[in-house]
Amino acid sequence: MGARAIACGCALALALALATRAEAFYLPGVAPVDYERDDLVFVKVNKLTSTSTQLPYDYYSLPYCKPEKVKHAAENLGEVLRGDRIENSLYSLEMRYDDQCKVQCRRKLTEAEAKTLGDKIKDEYRVQMILDNLPVGMTRYIEDEKGTRKKYERGFPVGFSSTDGKRYVNNHIRFTILYHRDPDTDLSRIVGFECVPFSVKHTYKKWSDDKPVLKTCDPRSQVYVSEASDPQEVKAGEEVVYTYDTLFKESDIRWASRWDTYLLMADDEIHWFSIINSMMIVLFLSVMTALIMLRTLHRDITVYNQLETAEETQEESGWKLIHGDVFRVPGNYVWLSVLSGTGVQLICMATVTIFFAVLGFLSPANRGGLMTAMVMLYVIMSYVNGYVSAFLFRMFKGQAWKMNALRASLFYPGIFFVVGTALNILISRQKSSGAIPFGTYFLLMFLWFGISVPLTFVGSYMGFKRDPLEEPVRTNKIPRQIPPQPWYMHDIVAVLVGGVLPFGAVFIELFFILTSIWLQQFYYIFGFLALVFIILIVTCAEITVVMCYFQLCAEDYRWWWRSFLTSGASAVYMFVYGIVYYNTSLVVTHKITTFIYFAYMSVLSLGFFILTGAVGFLSCLTFIRAIYSSVKID
């Protein structure tokens, strides 16, 4: 009896569903959506984005059809920082059932609404939507040696402008839902979410809030929206009717591979060229370093150790003569230790983030996951910052470790806080969803002062408590006079020359990273990024060691800060490249966008300077300790 009752219930439910489908196809309406129905799938709206303004806005900031109660989806930290505002909508569909000319609502535009809508169209805003965790995309095809391949453009335009300056809104959306059907169970899963927007000036025979009958889109009369339809102009007093179609199409794409089209990169050859180019730079530097370490240094150390008299020793020249000054404490050693600790913190954060991204834990399917991971890992790695900065601080004979820990915990986050607060004020005045809410602001402050700062102090206590490194040679009380240096060994020239190669190893990949940030594209080639990051670390270490050796051979023992600046100078080229990218790849229409761009590029370039500088300094410190430990000095 129980099995029969269940079977009868299922048959009755299927019959009701088929009846409902038949009615919905022929009699579209604007009846309230029943969100409790299990056979309906709802499209969620996200935000409005523009590459011209870089200011995201809430979907319902435009005069779109609104549900009776707008529900906000739970968002992680990364989504909030990106300006995502995921909400419910009136777009609903039934699996594997085509539904056309479905009416949402009609809106008569006020003067303010028409102006807002026209401004968004002028600034080329695009609508972002989500279905089953897939972003909506417009299909385009690319041709290469692999054939014709499909690629998605994220979102669809709010509208378009004509040559005479009139603006038209895309008020009809044709959704194409790709699904993969399991032949064994006949169950279907969504594997694609495509759309084609249209602008159509709808007219209707009569309007009923339950079942309006349109003249311009009526399945019963075989009248459908097309590109030949009269467009809907944006003008005060105009009545806009919002409609949509849902078309289902079976696909061979499996659910596990449904993101492949979104993540399609048409420039794999460019990435491989970048990797090969960077590998050649590393090979060149490795050969130079090997020659210095295995031939020149080995010969110098052997000859120097064989000298027996003081007169013979004094006749020697080069790096051996400055052994009594090479470990002299540098000026501003407090900030050198702070910058080095912060650089190691950034290196650890980047390494762990890229590692998990390569394993697939931070895929775009997990919206905001990458940014959330970076923020949390930066906070956790504060312990490493405190440890390294305090260890170096004590090596420099510093005593006030608590003040050093305070500087380490406040320096880079403080710059981020000042710049971010200024940008947040400007963005909030524009009423953009990119403004950080108060609750998120409080959470960030808690992560900083409640977790990051205490971890920095704990790391500083442990690092300062450890025994400092013993200097392999004694330091003279009176500094040695530095001989005149050739022009090519002056600080500015040497630093700028040293920063070219690290930047040259990463600048091609930097283009794709900037494109993903500022042109709203997916970035998922973390395997390439991991290789480039390793090459960057190796290049920074090797070029700094080579330049440091040349400096010591010129009997200039002021290597501490120059080693940091040599590899850190690559950030100067990064910022200059950012200026070039701004002028060649971005189309900016607002002054505030320019300020946002260069504010973020300044902070990112500073972080790149600290990261690469720390690699160079620590590599040079290891190199110098190694060579002077091999020299016999009485």
UniProtKB/TrEMBL annotation:
<dbReference type="InterPro" id="IPR004240">
    <property type="entry name" value="EMP70"/>
</dbReference>
<dbReference type="GO" id="GO:0072657">
    <property type="term" value="P:protein localization to membrane"/>
</dbReference>
<feature type="signal peptide">
    <location>
        <begin position="1"/>
        <end position="24"/>
    </location>
</feature>
<keyword id="KW-0472">Membrane</keyword>
<feature type="transmembrane region" description="Helical">
    <location>
        <begin position="439"/>
        <end position="464"/>
    </location>
</feature>
<feature type="transmembrane region" description="Helical">
    <location>
        <begin position="492"/>
        <end position="519"/>
    </location>
</feature>
<feature type="transmembrane region" description="Helical">
    <location>
        <begin position="333"/>
        <end position="362"/>
    </location>
</feature>
<feature type="transmembrane region" description="Helical">
    <location>
        <begin position="564"/>
        <end position="583"/>
    </location>
</feature>
<dbReference type="GO" id="GO:0010008">
    <property type="term" value="C:endosome membrane"/>
</dbReference>
<dbReference type="GO" id="GO:0000139">
    <property type="term" value="C:Golgi membrane"/>
</dbReference>
<feature type="transmembrane region" description="Helical">
    <location>
        <begin position="525"/>
        <end position="552"/>
    </location>
</feature>
<feature type="transmembrane region" description="Helical">
    <location>
        <begin position="595"/>
        <end position="628"/>
    </location>
</feature>
<protein>
    <recommendedName>
        <fullName>Transmembrane 9 superfamily member</fullName>
    </recommendedName>
</protein>
<dbReference type="Pfam" id="PF02990">
    <property type="entry name" value="EMP70"/>
</dbReference>
<comment type="similarity">
    <text>Belongs to the nonaspanin (TM9SF) (TC 9.A.2) family.</text>
</comment>
<feature type="transmembrane region" description="Helical">
    <location>
        <begin position="405"/>
        <end position="427"/>
    </location>
</feature>
<keyword id="KW-0812">Transmembrane</keyword>
<feature type="transmembrane region" description="Helical">
    <location>
        <begin position="368"/>
        <end position="393"/>
    </location>
</feature>
<keyword id="KW-0732">Signal</keyword>
<keyword id="KW-0967">Endosome</keyword>
<feature type="transmembrane region" description="Helical">
    <location>
        <begin position="272"/>
        <end position="294"/>
    </location>
</feature>
<keyword id="KW-1133">Transmembrane helix</keyword>
